[in-house]
Specification:
138 residues; mainly alpha
């Protein structure tokens, strides 16, 4: 059985790659109008697809690797991270999409999204740090 937070990250990664590809198609078809969207394209593909996929696979594999399942508290925070991570990335991608045409709004979204996204990453780091420290084997 796949945990809800694992499924949430894996499905999020699929949504983000679809968004990244859509932005990329626009950049290929209308380069003069859409090259300004490169940062949004990169964030959607790298942080969206790869990052979310990594979080999902990491949360699925690492507990099995170290022989210590996530505690109830860790699982709760992992589920919160799904929402926090996607909210932060949504703000960042939106900011990068709007910044060329609505500079101050785009910049505000970037400034808001960066710490939210960083908080999500900090949650992952804290959970995995504690998880990998609980194993008795080396």
């Amino acid at each position: 059985m796949i945990a809800r937070y694992v499924r949430g990250f894996l499905r999020s990664s699929l949504i983000w790659i679809a968004i990244g590809v859509a932005i990329g198609i626009g950049m290929a078809w209308w380069p003069a109008d859409h090259l300004a969207y490169r940062p949004a394209h990169a964030h959607a593909n790298v942080f969206g697809f790869l990052g979310m996929f990594l979080f999902g696979v990491g949360y699925h594999v690492l507990p099995r690797f170290v022989g210590a399942p996530l505690s109830h508290r860790q699982a709760t925070w992992a589920m919160r991270q799904v929402w926090i991570q996607n909210a932060g990335l949504g703000l960042l991608v939106s900011g990068w999409l709007l910044r060329p045409w609505r500079g101050s709004l785009g910049q505000w979204l970037l400034v808001a999204g960066a710490p939210v996204s960083a908080l999500g990453i900090a949650i992952f780091v804290a959970i995995v740090w504690r998880l990998t420290g609980t194993s008795g084997s080396v």
